[in-house]
Each structure stands twice: as C-alpha cells, then as structure tokens.
Amino acid sequence: MRLKDKVAIITGAGSGIGKATAEKFSAEGAIVVVADLKDEVIEPVVTSLNQHGGKAIGLSVDVTSSKDVQQLIAKTVELYGQLDIVVNNAGITQDAQLLKMTEEQFDKVMNVNVKGVFHVGQAAAKVMKEQQNGVILNASSVVGTFGNFGQTNYAASKWGVNGMTKTWARELGRYNIRVNAVAPGFISTAMVNKMPEKVLTMMKEKALLNRLGKPEDVANGYAFLASDDAAFITGTILSVDGGVTL
Hints:
Elements: E1 7-11, H1 16-27, E2 31-36, H2 39-51, E3 55-60, H3 66-80, E4 85-88, H4 103-131, E5 134-139, H5 143-146, H6 152-172, E6 177-184, H7 190-193, H8 197-206, H9 215-226, E7 237-240
Parallel strand pairs: 1-2, 1-4, 2-3, 4-5, 5-6, 6-7
Helix pairs in contact: 1-9, 3-4, 4-6
C-alpha cells in the first residue's frame, strides 16, 4: 500500500472526485480526513471507508473561512500528530457567458476555488514546514489552460490554481514539500451526467479515448502524486483528460 499510515485531508470529499479520492487513499492505507461543507455528505463516506477496513474521520469545513480551515488542520494534527497529504479538491461552478455573468457568480467561484485553496495550502504548509515533509495537491482543470465557453470565473480560478501550484513548489521545495495539481478533462460526475445527451456525446467525442473519465481515473492521479512513486515530481500540472486537449 503506497500511502500506508499517511494522514491525508481531502476537501470536498463528500461526493464525486473527492469521494473517489478518499476511497483510493484509504485503499492505499492512508488515514483519511473526509472534509466537506455539510455533515450529511461526510458521514456516509466515513462510514463506508471504515466498514471496508479503512481509518477515516469526518470534519466539516468552509474553505472560504480561514478560521474554519485552521481548525481543520489543528484538529487533524491534534488527533494524529502529523499531516502528510492535503488534497485541495473543494470547488464549485457558477456558469454564465461573460455578458450575463453577475459579480456574485464571479466572486463565489473565486472565493471557493482560489481563496479556499490558498487557505488550506497555507495552513497545511505551516505544519509541513515544521515536519520538513509533506505533499499538497490542488484540483485544477483543463479549462484553466484552454478556457471554456460560459466559464470565465471557473477558468480564471483554475488558472489561478495553476499559478499557486507552481509558486508553492518553488517556495516549499526547500522544506521537502512537494506541490502538484491534477487537471481533469470531462469526468462523469453527478453534475456532468445531468447535462443533455447531445452535450455528453460531444464531450465523449472530444476525448481521444472516446469516453468520459471516471472519478476513479482522477483519484488514481492524485494517489500517484501523493505517493513516493512521485518523489521527484513537483510543480507539475498532471492532465487526466483522455487526450481532450490534444
């Protein structure tokens, strides 16, 4: 097991890619802190992980609140004495074309997807610096590099995540802290699956592998980057997109 006894916080772990990542990390031997906004999505994931032989707890957190994030990190260290991995997975969308996008829509996405990542990354880095080791993984998107119709706010937020990832890799490498990001393409999540069939077909056709990705595909990328298999990888944006960007 590649992550045996590693302590990992995963934000947005109550559903979708976050949940799949929690399951993958647990299967790889990690102690998983399932962090999300609401207890009702946290508890089923924690219960399932523990029933399948894992070690998991759940903690609610609003990543836009620095106080909440600091409490999340402090509680984790209090319980386990260490923090080895953080996956900054929490994120939202508020789609609209530029001419119709409201300031509120723009601000909501930036607050969660950029400020939230900043809060968690900063708080985790302070602990990891003291330990002189750690891994920070951020959720990017192919949209952050190539843009997407109707996603001014989301594309800007993921471009920001890419910039933070590379900057933190430069700043934190001296403390043996690796920082990377995963950039998914079109992934079959509950949100995506609600889209019209013609849109789903278009998404599949854009991928060279002619299918949507699965949350597990992205989770596998996170698990690789979190493990010692990626011990000499930092500052990279790993595309998990089925070739949609080629």
